[in-house]
Amino acid sequence: MSGLGVDGLRVALGDTVALDDVSLAVPAGEVTAVVGGDGAGKSTLLRVLAGRVGAVSGAIRTLPQADIGYQPSTSGVWGNLSVSENIEFVGSSYGMSAKAVRARGDELLQRAGLADARTRLGRALSGGMRQKLGFVLAILHEPRLILLDEPSTGVDPVSRVELWRLISAAASGETAVLMATTYLDEAARAASVTALDAGAVIAAGRPDEIIAGVPGAIGMLRPGIAVPPRSWRRGVERHTWVPEGTPLDGADPIASPDLEDALIALTLARRAVADDEASAHPRRAARRASAEDAASPTIDEPASAAPGAVVAEGRDVTRRFGSHIAVDAVSLDVRAGEVVGLIGANGAGKTTFLRALIGLDRPDDGQVGLFGAPPDAASGRRLGYVPQGLGLFRTISVAQNVEFFSRVYGTPEIALPPSLAAVSQRVVESIGLGRQRQLAFALALGHDPELLVLDEPTSGVDPLSRARLWDVIHAQADAGRGVLVTTHYLQEAEQCTRLALLSQGRLIGAGSVADLTTGVTAVLVRSPQWQQAFTALGDAGLPTMLSGRAVRVAGVDVDRVRDALRGIDAQVEQVAPTLEEAMVLRETVPAA
């Protein structure tokens, strides 16, 4: 098992070099992470090890199909089968007995929090529930190599904790786990990390080794300083990177950068060098440009709505699907010039409320309004909408999508940035997810909307592109537009003007980050045996979260944490709470 992995791997998909000289070891008993944004090559690497894609050159050391568990980025769930039928089908395909399938399936569904969803069809599950079921299907037959392609994308922070328990427990003994992810806090928990950018390795090793290997310096910009090009958003802060020998003007050094800061800095460093070589590698240069300017469309024309005016409003909105109440008397408004974040666990009702608010679905009870009137075709043309699925016609060309949207909104043809103009005659499904996301934003902003509605806009995006996209979002609010955004990245949520927290269809909290974290306590645990500490705290019934390889416990005091850690070497201290911890507590403890 110690020999699993690839050496000098080169893979070409048509004329595109998807992986170039990639080497990676996947040892047994560990979780190995591969990170990168859309188009970086993560999925291709996993598919090579799964035997689904061939290589041009390089060595591939993998296992027979029967010993591999593979979860694709699409979850691998059959939509027309129930949860139980998915389990039975996959189990039987691996030759498991009916008794073994029931026993193993019951255990995994219970641990994944899906035991009460056995009769629900796969297509009726929320995105996060589908991802968790996909993981269960991948490990059902107890494979020795588990390949997980972004298993936690679209999974809320609360559910990701339990999903990580399952993943870390699976990586034991003779079982190796290779996980692709865009969540760098998850990657920081892995034994080793390989970071890809445009098909090439930009960093590899233990997370602490990668952080220590960043050239130059990383700093936090001081207030009022002009924003340099090599900077990025981190919550309410802005960080910057400078090469070796360059002073950190206008910024204070960050003594202990995290993995996200390190990989953004390494990406910027690599692209700075690669810019000088772009003429020799035009295809790779195009891939870099597509990833980096995925959020490039900007609108200079200010919105017509008066600052602070209500541009969208829902009052006591209720939406039912049969006997299930998806949204339960939720009230929320969005005003010009602000960014409102809608957060909550999978199935909380975020997308359902959003669709009712803008008139795509009709609420069963309550009222919704856009720009002071009920939603209609005219008000719909005053908003820009990017749904989770991007809302593009994938079987027609980029240019035909542009023509269609221009006619719908009654505007002149929407101007495209150079990276999209270069592929305007290509079918959308062939241009890669990075450019597809860029196109969706260009179309949503192309008619100067007064309200921008974004449903999980940065899902699957690398950290640098995510920061660039938030620059665009803030530019829209600064121009006087209202912005409503749903997100599972709670660090992103901290950038919002206001937040609304949904749970099981109900609004259970609203306000700023400070409002939502008021009264919450948190304890930080650092231990060389962090996995053992994480397990012990969870077994004690404490609400635990992972922050890299540190463990955080919300809602309890230090003494209770120390009691649960008896016999484990650990440092324990009281710390300021995070939005994620406030969300966990509100999700797990019924509101008064």
From TrEMBL:
<feature type="domain" description="ABC transporter">
    <location>
        <begin position="4"/>
        <end position="223"/>
    </location>
</feature>
<dbReference type="InterPro" id="IPR027417">
    <property type="entry name" value="P-loop_NTPase"/>
</dbReference>
<keyword id="KW-0067">ATP-binding</keyword>
<feature type="region of interest" description="Disordered">
    <location>
        <begin position="277"/>
        <end position="307"/>
    </location>
</feature>
<keyword id="KW-0547">Nucleotide-binding</keyword>
<protein>
    <submittedName>
        <fullName>ATP-binding cassette domain-containing protein</fullName>
    </submittedName>
</protein>
<dbReference type="InterPro" id="IPR003593">
    <property type="entry name" value="AAA+_ATPase"/>
</dbReference>
<dbReference type="InterPro" id="IPR003439">
    <property type="entry name" value="ABC_transporter-like_ATP-bd"/>
</dbReference>
<dbReference type="GO" id="GO:0005524">
    <property type="term" value="F:ATP binding"/>
</dbReference>
<dbReference type="InterPro" id="IPR017871">
    <property type="entry name" value="ABC_transporter-like_CS"/>
</dbReference>
<feature type="domain" description="ABC transporter">
    <location>
        <begin position="312"/>
        <end position="529"/>
    </location>
</feature>
<dbReference type="Pfam" id="PF00005">
    <property type="entry name" value="ABC_tran"/>
</dbReference>
